[in-house]
Design brief:
heterodimer; A: mainly alpha; 3-stranded antiparallel sheet; 13 helices; B: alpha+beta; Penicillin-binding protein 2a (Domain 2); Beta-lactamase; 3 domains; 7-stranded mixed sheet; 5-stranded antiparallel sheet; 23 strands; elongated; cell shape (chain A); Rod shape-determining protein RodA (chain A)
Amino acid sequence: MPQLPQIQSVKAPDRAVVDATKPRRFKYFNLPFLIVLALLVSYGLVIVYTAVYNDADYSFSRQLACVAIGAVVMIVIGRFDYRNLSDFTTVLLVVSVALILSPHIPGLGTDAGMGAQSWIKVGIQVQPGEFAKITVILLAASVVSRYGGRLDDVREYLKALGIMLVPFLCIMTQPDLGTGLVYLFITAVALVVGGARPKFLLITLVAGIAAIAAVFAIDQVLYDATGEYKLLKQYQRNRLLVFLEHDSVNLSDEGWNLKQAQVAIGSGGLFGKGLFNATQATLGFLPEAPTDFIFCVLAEQLGFFGVMALLALYAALVLICFRIAGASSDLFGTIIVMCTVGMWLFQILENIGMTLGLMPITGIPLPFVSYGSTGMVMNFMLLGLIGSVWAHNGR
Amino acid sequence: MLAAIIATIVTVVVLIIALVVVFTIRNRTKSPKASSKRMDVRAINTVGVGARSRGRGHADARVNAPQTSATNLGETLRPRFIAMGVLAAGIFGSLAVKAWSLQSNSETYRKEADENQYTTVSTPAPRGYIYDADGIELVRNRKSLTVLADVEVADDRTVVQRLSAVLGIPHNVVRYRIQDATTGAQSQRVVASDVDLRNIAFISEHLSAFPGVTTQERSVREYPWGALAAHALGYASTADDKDLETPIDGAELEMGDVVGKSGVEAGYERLLAGTHGQRVLVAAADGTVQRVVSETDPEKGNDIYLTIKAPVQYKIDQMLADLVAPTDATIGTGKGDSASAVVMDVRDGSIVAMASYPTFSPEVFVGGIGDDMWSLYTKDSEFQPLLNRVIAGNYAAASTFKAFTGLAGLAYGFADTGRSWDCTGSWDGFNTGAPQKCWLRTGHGPISFREGIVQSCDTVFYEIGKNFFQAGASQGGTISDTAMQEYVEKYGFGKTTGIDIPSEAAGRVPTPQWKAEHFADYPEAQQWMGGDLTNMVIGQGDVLVTPLQMAVAYGAIATGNLMRPHLFKEARNSSGEVVVSFEPEVTGVPDVPPENLEIMRDALHGVATENESIAKLFGEHGIDAAAKTGTAEYSDGKNESAWFVCYAPFDDPKYVVACQVNHGGGGSEVAAPLGVEIMAAVLAADAGELDPTVGVVAASSGKYIPLPLKSDGSGRTD
């Protein structure tokens, strides 16, 4: 073996490079971020406990375990350098599609009695569509960040849009419109933050609305021809109708759900009925109280001020995430954080909005509050990514 | 207004927060201190990305070109962050505003939530008991464990078979009972009453295996004497839809309550029905009860004491059964197809006994009567056991009517004690060529008014009727065409007596006007004829009366007063205090000259003392009475119907008895022995000599054989 020359001295690397590539061990996580997160998750756990403590169908310890697992996963992911992921666009796309389509695999998928093929059973029941939110965010970030913050070429815009629409089209085969809308929203945020031309976005929006109108029109034509709606299921129509005319008396299940949700929220008043004093939720008037309608449980027990506290925590989380996004060392990180924030915002808007009658009813969980293991672990994974963005921002 | 203000404030606050955030981010990106290092780092990174991308040939340099400066990137990102901030502020703001609008006026929602969680269940109150005049229980309550099911359960094979297995009832019977609609479309159907506690416990513990099935402990009616006085007592059963829609004034009727449907049960529903208890429950959406918030106990209804004397009633019930269906409880083996009898105290209108045969068992209505029993009790071919013939049986009055038409004749001078008629057995006073016959075809010969009553000579009354007809205004006479009717109506005929139980019939006293209306479609039959009056004068033709009307009217002959008949004596509350008691009510004093009344009383006394067959009957019991028989004839060949009315003691009238045996034969042969026996029993009871035994009375079996038509051509025998 030939002898290598002895190195006497090494020029110290550029400090900036060192700072950027070496994470700081003790300022690993943003402290306000952790505090707000702890408050939010504890608040959610308290509410979930009051909703499930008397219900054999749900297990609070399972929810606790999810939070614990989530916390560990968050720390692990936080140590990992997210930037390693930016090149794997194709892999991310494949993983997303595989996850979203996995419930279609015979023997693995189940509709869990809910009508949509959204679950798989691997020992426990999980919703791969939830986990796919992470890969969809990463995919969007990896696609858009390529353009360095300026996306003003039509062909490139369409290419990026085309890639990002793939997960949406896949989820619509389950079908799960709620999650699909989340994907679309993530895509939209990525395009906005990624610098797509406002003109493109506007045209896309118009096209989207036109597409929805077309779906309804075609469905109506199919109905006239075959006597049944083919594209939209009856419950989807009902939900939309209930939303559009929720002041009128509507005896459908969806109308009843909305009515009971509003009774729950309204009866909470300013200060609420007190923890464990919810009647709408514990007596079964609220459907799916611990999951989709958890906000009503909170609003009934803690009233308007409890609601404001929740919104304040969310707002604080969003603010801190904005800071982290702004402080990111690269566009990829910024887009990851902004897409995550956008996703949460959309879920908050949809979940709370539907119970308030602002949005149509769709089964979207409330981040960090709703009962459910997949969503909770998924959100913690995203927190881990955000942590990673913060940790690797080079400061 | 306040809401709008606060909503605005909230929105403003949220917007301010959003703006602060936006500006903070802006400042940070601008701050040279913060960005100096990042600038370099970013430059390195972007270069790296660009290099890698180029290597893979994915993105071109054109795209990467503007990215070389980090400050440029920060500047380009700023408006996008602002857009996201505004979006977040908009979302939080609108959610807060909407939450405020719902939660600031929580009153209506709170009320709705309370309506959701609290369920008020009324617990049925036991009905009051019913006693006879001397405190013998006639109707009481007992507890019954009942299994009920929703109508839909009939379609659920597994549940039906489970019920069948647990209750030991064939499954087709279970299904049949659930489908049975007599208790009303909405109510739960009784699958089984008086179920063993063990089986009830099993069902209650496995309710999830019996969807739509409930178990209840009900307080139900119990009839210790079976069908005794069934028509007077009436029956009670679960309220049906009609009852629930139109409850008696002030009654709070709930689904599943038992209500009186006939007789005293219906007439005194308000006294008998207790006050519901109330339980306020917290119930879940699926109906499972979580806890009881408050509870008030139900209050039992008042006990009612009747004027009926159970031992007398028992005797009469048995007499009627023995008369009509002596063999194997089969109608047709005795006299007639049905019979009824009523005993009234002429002094105050108290009904001492009221019996109608065929009778029914009120017990079968407990928990809902089955379709088969219902049809047995109401179908014409089974002679309608539910019909209370005493108050609702419209019958031709026959010769018992002569007492009143006779009084009319006396009043208008068409009869007097000095006058004599000649009865040849056949009478054709209107020269129609179709003579009317006296019941004694051979004729009574010369006969006085008094004898005309005693022997019940028809000819005397044909003459009186003819006189009324010819004196009528339409015949050029001086009196009203309806003079006789009006006179008869003074005694209460043609209208209800006002007895205190429902469903009373009014009977009919025909008038020219009635006939014209009745035969509106047959102009040739509308003409009021002399024959109408001569028929009416002997209680035939279109005259219809009820046994109760007859009793009240004869009571008025005995005392001079028309009394309102009643079964109610008094009501006592749960502590035994009398809360209501009846007041005798004189409903009318027929305006009849006293001397005429004396003539009539004397003549009726003559029936009881001089008419051989009748006098013999009364003689056996040493009763000094006034009486009248009647035999109603039918033109369709059916057997005659027998009447007998009497009051006693003659000098100091206490009781009047009226009885009718439908298609049973002649009054003196069939009805008189019955009526005299009844009177004897009543007087014996009054004297404390009647056997005080009360036994169980059997209801109609529903069995009957065809009745013979008129046995011979001899016609009436009274």
